[in-house]
Amino acid sequence: MNPASKSYLELLREFQRRLEAARKPAAESRWILGHAAGLSDKALAARLMQAVPPDVEEAAWAMLNLRLKGYPLQLLLGETEFYGLKLKVERGVLIPRPETEGLVEQALGYVPPEVEAQVLDIGTGSGAIALAVKAARPRATVWATDINPKALELARHNAQQLGLEVTFLEAPFTGGLGGLDLIVSNPPYLPERYREEAPPELAYEDPTALYAGLEGLDVARPLLAQAWAALKPGGWLWLELAPENIYTLLAEATAQGWREARVYRDLAQQPRYLACQKPAHSPPPPEDEEGLLVWEGE
Known about the structure:
The chain is α/β, with parallel strands linked by helices.
């Protein structure tokens, strides 16, 4: 080994120190160096005492410096794992979050594996929710809507790579679909004031996929009326929302006639998921006076 060159182990330790100083997980050092070297975790572990080629070290440092500035790790790697599926990610399309895996887990409980259910993912982004549902419930017919052409292109790519059949529509909200058993959505739900305290990673995300007005409900409110029209009697709506606004929408959904409206907590014990059922026989809820809004992203 050239005395001037570092081994993989030495570079990993240096990266870990830098990441920990920036209050980021030290484990990211493996993913960054492994990606720069084109090595799996296992292959990297087998080369720890070997010298790092100069071009690999240069690429790894460039990635680390971006990460230390807050650039999302998933975008650096070009992929992320969601509910056991490997998904390609790109800037301009919301990166799937662990909280949304919880949304999928909860919603799947309302789709028995043996039932040929009709399911819609609203605002699909990378396709994460729709693809996770289809993978877990192969008998279901799964639809997904988005108004962002870039998101739909990425979602279709992910579906093709995974060999999963999902119908993607460039359309707002329900895209005119009807007779659905389940609608799942992770709409933009952050209040505008959160921009001031948001972590640096969010600066690299599409803001229209994150923020939704003063209360964070400018999309979720009209989505209630759209979902009501698209669901069959007895169908379910599942939404991911913010702890600051989820109980507000719970009260509104109850007032509008939704049954079994309730809030569920995420793994961090934060109120995160709103579930409500369209009753078998009742009049439609009042229309939102401000009209229907659309958004891009997950």
